[in-house]
Amino acid sequence: MAVTVKASLGKTKYYTEVTAGENTIITDEPIDKGGQNKGFNPMEILATSLASCTAATLRMYIERKEWDVENINVEVELENYPLTKRAVFQREISFEGILDDEQLKRLHTIADACPVHKILTNDIEILTKFS
């Protein structure tokens, strides 16, 4: 399934409107980088994709199993190392509910099966054209 998003940046430094279908988000850069800090920066959006996909994937599985979990918390820290061409995602997941060790082990596997996690751990190719 293909996903299409469009980013539009005018003359206001780094304030970008990003649309996907009928939904819009704002991205920006922090003030110390010349932006106005009116939205997530692009790296935060990347980390947000992993965090939100993980939470949704876990929720779908938990509901299917009818486990009693009130809340799923996913925190993602993204550290980029441009000199070594390496990025490290640290993902911490916690639950408000009662889960045993076997359930937690299964949920770890499910977290790794979220579509964004799979994309980020596979080969990635970016094809660019100008029009």
TrEMBL record:
InterPro entries hit by this protein: KH_dom-like_a/b, OsmC/Ohr_fam, OsmC/Ohrsf
One Pfam family here: OsmC
Name this polypeptide is given: OsmC-like protein
Organism: Chryseobacterium jejuense
Lineage of producing organism: Bacteria, Pseudomonadati, Bacteroidota, Flavobacteriia, Flavobacteriales
